[in-house]
Amino acid sequence: MVAKPGGISRPCFFIVVAATLWVLTLYLRLLVPIAFSWRVAVDSGRSSGGKDDPCRGRYVYIHDLPPRFNAEILRNCSTAYAGWPKMCDDVSNGGLGRPMAGGAFTGETGWYATHQFALDAIFHGRMRQYGCLTNDSAASDAVFVPFYAGFEFAAHSWGYDAAARDAASADLVRWLVRRPEWRRAGGRDHFVVGGRTAWDFMRSDPNSAWGNAFLLSPAAKNLTLLAVETATLGWGNDVAVPYPTYFHPRSDAEVLSWQQRIRDSDRWWLTSFVGATRPGDDKSIRSQIVAQCAASPSCRQLGCKFGSAQCHYPGDIMVLFMSSTFCLQPSGDSSTRRSTFDAMVAGCIPVFFKPRSAYIQYRWHLPRDHATYSVLIPDESVRAGNVSIEAELRKIPPAAVVKMREEVIKLVPRLLYADPRYKLQTVKDAFDVAVDGVLERVKQQIKGGDDYGATAGWR
Ligand SMILES: *[C@@H]1O[C@H](CO)[C@@H](O)[C@H](O)[C@H]1NC(C)=O
Ligand SMILES: *[C@@H]1O[C@H](CO)[C@@H](O)[C@H](O)[C@H]1NC(C)=O
Ligand SMILES: *[C@@H]1O[C@H](CO)[C@@H](O)[C@H](O)[C@H]1NC(C)=O
Ligand SMILES: *[C@@H]1O[C@H](CO)[C@@H](O)[C@H](O)[C@H]1NC(C)=O
C-alpha cells in the first residue's frame, strides 16, 4: 500500500507513531551512551583543530605511572648487574648508551653503542616527543603505559624466584585495572613496550627458572605489547618492532646523507657473518654457516666466540656490513637477531634461513613481499649440507641485487630509532611506524571487536 501524497491513512499513522517510539526508545537506551562517549572525543578534538586536526584519531595519552615502574628501575640499573653487565652505561643517554668510541664512527654524531635490549627507554623518550599527545585521557585514541617491562625483567631475572620475578608486573596490572582509562575499553586501547623477546614475559611453567608471567595475566592479554620478537606470530597481543641499532639520527638531513653514504659504499665482500656458533644446539646451522664462510674467499666473518672480542666493537660490525652485499642472519638464541637491523641499516641485503626470523615478525616495518629486499635459504638444506650459500647467492643476477639493495636503503629510515632528544622533520622512523600500527590495531580491536556488546565499556 502506497499512501497518497498529502494524506496519511489511519492504520499507517499508528504504524509510523509506533515505529518512531520504538526507534526513539532504542536510541535512548543504546545509542545515547555510545554517542555521548564519541562526543567527548570529538569535542576535545574540535578544541584542538576539529575536522582539519592532523591529530584526529591519533591522540595518545601517557599514563603517569609511579616511578617504581620506570624511572626507579632505571636508577637501580647497577643492581641488575648479575644478568646485564654494564647496564647503567648501556641505558645512559636516554637509552642510546655511550657514544661510539674506538674505531669507526668515533666522534660522529648519531652513533652510539646501543644495547639490543634498550628499547624501553628509547621508545619512552620518542613517545614524549610524539606530536599528538593529549593530557585529556577521555579524548585519547590510545593509552601508552610507560612500564619498563624489559628493564624490569633484567632487574629480577637472575637469582630470584618466580614470585619475585612476577611481583612488579602484577603490581602494574593491579594499578592499571583500577584506572578509569582501563574501564573504557578493558585495556584494549593500552600499549606497553618490553624491549626483549615476548617469550621473556610468557613463563607458563611456574617452576621454570626463566622469565615472568606478565603477558599471561588476564588483564595483560587485553593490551598490546611491543617486543623485539613476537612469540605468538600474529595470533596474540605481542607485536614485533625492530631492535634498536647503533644509529640514532637527529635530523632528516642525517638520515638522507647516511642513505647516500651506504649507496656509494664499496662492497668487496659478497657475504658476511657476525656471530658465534651454538655448540650445544644441534638444530642450529651456525657451525655450517661458519664453515662455509671460512672456506670462501668472498665471505668475511667476525667471530664472537668466548675470548674473542672481534664482534664487540659496533664500529667494526658496521664497517663490515657496509662493505658486504649479503649479510647472513641465521637464528641464534631465538629466531630473530638484532644483527638483521644493523645489516639493513648498513645497506646489506639480509639472508634469512627461517621465515620467522623476520617475515612473520615485523609486519608493520618490513614489506609483505619479502623477495624485494631479502633472500630466504631454508635452513634444512643448509643443515643437510647439500646447499652452498655462496652458489645460491651468485645465481641472483647483478641487476636484481642492485634493485634489492635500493629497496633495503629505502627501508632504512623505518628501521632506526631517531635520537629521542631531537626531532626528525618529515622522515618516519621505526617509532612512528610502530605508533601508526598501534593506533590501527586499537581501532580494529575496539570497533571491529568480536564482541559488539563490549562497546558498552566505552561509557
Ligand atoms: C631500587 O633499589 C632500592 C634499594 O635497593 C629498593 O628499595 C627499591 O625497591 C628498588 N626499586 C625498584 C623499582 O626496584
Ligand atoms: C600535559 O600537562 C603537563 C603538566 O601540566 C604539561 O607539561 C604538558 O605540556 C601537557 N601536555 C599536553 C600535550 O598538553
Ligand atoms: C578484557 O577485555 C574483555 C572484553 O574483550 C573484557 O570483558 C574483560 O573484562 C577485560 N579484562 C580486564 C581484566 O579488564
Ligand atoms: C637438500 O636436502 C634437503 C633434505 O634432504 C632437501 O629437503 C632439499 O630439497 C635439498 N635441497 C637441494 C637444493 O637439493
From TrEMBL:
One annotated GO molecular function: glycosyltransferase activity
Subcellular location: Golgi apparatus membrane
Positions of transmembrane segments: 12-38
One GO term describing the cellular component: Golgi membrane
Any Pfam family hit: Exostosin_GT47
Keywords associated with the record: Glycosyltransferase, Golgi apparatus, Membrane, Signal-anchor, Transferase, Transmembrane, Transmembrane helix
Tree of life domain: Eukaryota
Keyword Electron transport set for record: no
UniProt membrane topology term: Single-pass type II membrane protein
Exostosin GT47 domain: residues covered: 55-392
Family: Belongs to the glycosyltransferase 47 family.
Protein name: Exostosin GT47 domain-containing protein
Organism: Eleusine coracana subsp. coracana
